[in-house]
Amino acid sequence: xxxxxxxxxxxxxxxxxxxxxxxxxxxxxxxxxxxxxxxxxxxxxxxxxxxxxxxxxxxxxxxxxxxxxxxxxxxxxxxxxxxxxxxxxxxxxxxxxxxxxxxxxxxxxxxxxxxxxxxxxxxxxxxxxxxxxxxxxxxxxxxxxxxxxxxxxxxxxxxxxxxxxxxxxxxxxx
Length: 174
Fold this sequence. Notes:
Blueprint (H helix, E strand, L loop, with lengths): L1 H9 L12 H9 L21 H17 L4 H19 L3 H18 L4 H14 L6 H8 L6 H20 L3
Helix pairs in contact: 3-4, 6-8
């Protein structure tokens, strides 16, 4: 079999990967829009002057890998990061007092949107989804440590995606 694969590759053909999922799993994955994602599926628009091209290329590769690892739909994955970049830039322009007020205001809005223990549940769902990117991911750390998850739009959007993934996983045939 290895000789056959080598001969096919030598002729310029790619040997397709074997899909080991059952027919029921394939149907379930398609119904939920889940499946293996490739970093090239994502487009991220960066503000002009963000960084030199060489640095931006490395960051872009890591950002797109993150989106693929946490399995966000390509249609919104880039937009989520673009919004996070915008929020981060706004936070950098604030004084420490303004940042504290902004974070408290966002947290208050989230408490209103997620009453009782729902905020903690949604937060844990987001953490579980971000953990799919592996340990020590710089971008995930920026989300956590930079206060970006106090942005109501960003938090709610990630929470919806995390819940969608949990529902998909819970109902996926074995």
